[in-house]
Design goal:
The chain has about 250 residues and is an alpha/beta fold. Helix content is about 45%, strand content about 15%. It folds into 2 domains: about 30 residues; about 210 residues, Glycoside hydrolase/deacetylase (TIM Barrel, Alpha-Beta Barrel). Strands 2, 3, 4, 7, 8 and 9 form a 6-stranded parallel sheet that branches. This is Polysaccharide deacetylase family sporulation protein PdaB.
Length: about 250
């Protein structure tokens, strides 16, 4: 091929490449931005979807009086999909309840070891705490956790980067039931039913500190179903559309 022909071919190839890039930018203008957002450290609060799906999530770090009634309600209401975030010490102290959560088919996530704010401690301490709870949950339930809800929902960019490097996805919530404040059964129920949206992650507790959740939970389940919602695990929710995140 002559030099002139080679140059012509090179110029045509370059023009085609530029033109393809321009078309991509026109018809998919958010792709680069979406990739940029997804690349940043983030916690997941909800999923952007039109499907009426919600994830019921329960944190457990203390007690044995509330967890079993919560599990009983879920069984009676035929709720087979929910996600429980367990602390390491609680799992060790109450292995039969933890095993029951697993055997009932519910998803299990990590809720840390000591219930302290991660952002107040160095990465080495965070890794140690997560590994301790991960080991406890694995030994009791044979589940290797990949989702984590940090104690008190506390995190910053550094904490998320540390947890991501350990293979964890940080899960927050979009609707907080505030059941841990024990504001009254109606207040808990109405807060969830009024705030829940498609793709929601709903925060509740199955610790003994949440004294009214067992009365509110049946109403929450019935109310959400009446609105047309279906229950899925957090992992199932994450497969839906684009994840709504918050970068710290």
């Amino acid at each position: 091929m002559h030099m002139r022909a080679r140059r012509k071919l090179f110029l045509l190839t370059l023009i085609a490449t530029v033109f393809t890039g321009m078309l991509s930018a026109v018809f998919n203008p958010l792709s680069a931005k979406a990739k940029e957002i997804q690349a940043k450290p983030h916690a997941v609060y909800k999923v952007d979807t039109d499907k009426k799906l919600v994830a019921l999530t329960f944190d457990i770090s203390w007690g044995n009086k509330t967890p079993e009634p919560v599990l009983k309600i879920l069984k009676e209401k035929h709720v087979t999909k929910a996600t429980f975030f367990l602390s390491g010490p609680w799992t060790v102290r109450h292995p039969e309840i933890a095993k029951n959560i697993k055997n009932m088919g519910f998803e299990i996530g990590n809720h840390g070891n000591l219930h302290k704010d991660f952002s107040n401690y160095p990465d080495s301490w965070i890794r140690q705490q997560v590994q301790l709870s991960e080991k406890a949950i694995k030994q009791v339930t044979n589940v290797k956790t990949t989702l984590i809800r940090t104690p008190n929902g506390d995190f910053n960019t550094r904490v998320i980067q540390c947890l991501n490097s350990m293979g964890y996805t940080v899960i927050q919530w979009n609707t907080d039931s505030l059941d841990w404040k024990n504001p009254g059964v109606s207040a808990i129920t109405n807060r969830v039913l009024n705030r829940a949206v498609p793709g929601d992650i709903i925060l509740m507790h199955a610790s003994d500190s949440s004294k009214q959740i067992t009365q509110a939970l049946p109403q929450i389940i019935d109310g959400l179903r009446a609105k047309g919602y279906q229950f899925v695990t957090v992992s199932e929710l994450l497969t839906q559309a684009k994840v709504k995140t918050q970068v710290q």
